[in-house]
Specification:
Blueprint: E1 2-9, E2 13-20, E3 25-33, H1 42-62, E4 66-74, E5 78-79, E6 84-85, H2 98-105, E7 111-116, H3 117-129, E8 135-141, E9 145-151, E10 154-155, H4 188-191, H5 193-203, H6 213-230, H7 238-261, E11 265-269, H8 277-288, H9 290-296, E12 307-310, H10 316-338
Parallel strand pairs: 1-4, 4-7, 8-11, 11-12
Antiparallel strand pairs: 1-2, 2-3, 5-6, 8-9, 9-10
The protein binds zinc ion.
Length: 341
């Protein structure tokens, strides 16, 4: 049987799976930590990736599946038409022509496609849960902050590059945070895992500037887990303050999102929030309290009627990347049949 290999390249790990697109099923999946990811250049990164793909292909063959296409989700900025990952702040690779490299390594594939990871997650959520909706916005809160918007089943991405909503600024009086991209007060510098770790340091009076890179990375990994574990009633009330500040930052970002898309539905996913039931409670409270907030801020009213949902899907980006590859390939074959070269 045929299947699509879906790959989700994150800041610290690579997830991949064989996906049976017609049955909407993961056939086999794997997750590999990118050891020393800060130093991996294009060559060593690709070597690591190809080894994982080869292992997956063996496992798929043992289950009677033949991989015929690949969909690769990666952090932006990237060029999906040229198949090039450009210079993402959360990865060390630069101007990596990943689609050409994969095509050379796997010439038997019918098609190999690249897309932004937040777009892949948005498409996956849409395909799995929201196909009856006209509009859907996905906000992913993890190592980075990403956003994908689907309109009538198609990704909204302007001239071709994905939205980079995580790098739009948030106005927080008295706060100046430098983002990994070099910008100031990007949404990611508050809502990404290192942004949350910085908020934790502010509340617990730890000087972020004095921490080693290693300590920052480890806090960015631990704080989101501890927060989810401890909320809503931690013994140490400083954790409540960490959550309240994170939620205030989120509210300001949602206001920006509402001003751009006036969305019908916002789905939250990503390592920080996936299945975080207490966040869902607070989002419901936010929606119920919008009339009060709108008295002082008419643009908060744009969120009135917007559904805010925390997703429990574990692998939406893998489903999205596979579905994208499948549809792109179908479209290409149709064009080719109509207009033979
Ligand atoms: Zn930024």
């Amino acid at each position: 049987m045929d299947c699509v290999i879906a790959i989700d390249i994150g800041g610290t790990k690579i997830d991949m799976a064989g996906v049976d697109v017609e049955k909407l099923r993961l056939v086999d999946s794997s997750s590999a930590v990118l050891q020393g990811h800060e130093q991996l250049d294009n060559g060593s990164f690709f070597e690591f990736l190809a080894e994982r793909i080869n292992e997956l292909m063996v496992a798929l063959r043992q289950r009677g599946y033949q991989a015929v296409m690949m969909g690769v989700a990666a952090p932006g900025p990237l060029d999906h038409r040229l198949g090039v990952i450009e210079d993402p702040p959360n990865l060390a690779v630069r101007r990596m022509a990943i689609v050409a490299m994969l095509k050379r390594q796997y010439p038997e594939m019918f098609g190999i496609y690249l897309l932004n990871d937040a777009d892949a997650m948005a498409l996956g959520e849409y395909r799995l849960n929201y196909q009856e909706r006209d509009h859907m916005t996905l906000l992913t809160l993890g190592t980075g902050v990403g956003c994908g918007h689907v309109e009538y089943g198609r990704l909204f991405r302007g001239r071709g590059k994905a939205s980079e909503f995580g790098h739009t600024s948030v106005s927080i009086p008295g706060t100046m945070r430098e983002c990994a991209c070099g910008g100031i007060n990007c949404a990611e510098s508050f809502l990404g895992s290192s942004g949350l770790a910085r908020t934790y340091c502010e509340v617990f009076e730890i000087k972020w500037e004095l921490l080693s890179t290693r300590d920052r990375v480890s806090l960015s990994h631990l704080v989101p887990k501890d927060l989810r574990w401890l909320m809503p009633e931690p013994e140490d009330k400083r954790w409540t303050e960490v959550f309240d500040r994170y939620f205030l930052h989120l509210r300001l970002v949602l206001r920006n999102l509402a001003c751009v898309y006036n969305p019908e539905l916002i789905v939250f996913n990503g390592g920080i929030v996936r299945g975080f039931s207490y966040l869902q409670v607070r989002l419901d409270q936010l929606r119920n309290g919008l009339a009060d907030m709108a008295a002082n801020d008419p643009f908060m009213r744009l969120l009135d009627g917007t559904q805010l949902t925390v997703s429990s899907e574990e692998h939406p980006a893998l489903f999205g990347a596979a579905w994208y590859a499948y549809r792109r390939n179908e479209a290409e074959r149709a064009t080719h049949e109509q207009f033979p070269a």
